[in-house]
Amino acid sequence: MLDGTETKPDTREEMPNCSGTHEGTGNKGGCRCAPEAAATPLLLDVAEVARLLTCSKPHVRRLADAGRMPRPVKLGTLVRWKRAEIEQWLTAGCPDARRSALG
Fold this sequence. Notes:
about 35% helix, globular, alpha+beta, 2 domains, three-stranded antiparallel β-sheet, two-stranded antiparallel sheet
């Protein structure tokens, strides 16, 4: 500008599958239109499952080993549970996963 100040061009762009705007093309900062989606992971580790169930991590492992809760997803050495399955299981009153899978 003539007064010595510079202005940066607006690099925001509309994302086709999103209702918000994003900086640049990579958007490494995450989606600003749905902060709750970024804050709620799809996969939960044993500590997060224990927190949801208000029990200890060993108890979660015992429930999983006994087949009394939804099966975890194993990613190499990592063990994770799908948030949606855990929430459905809780909503259903925590039925024995072995029995509900059989019948």
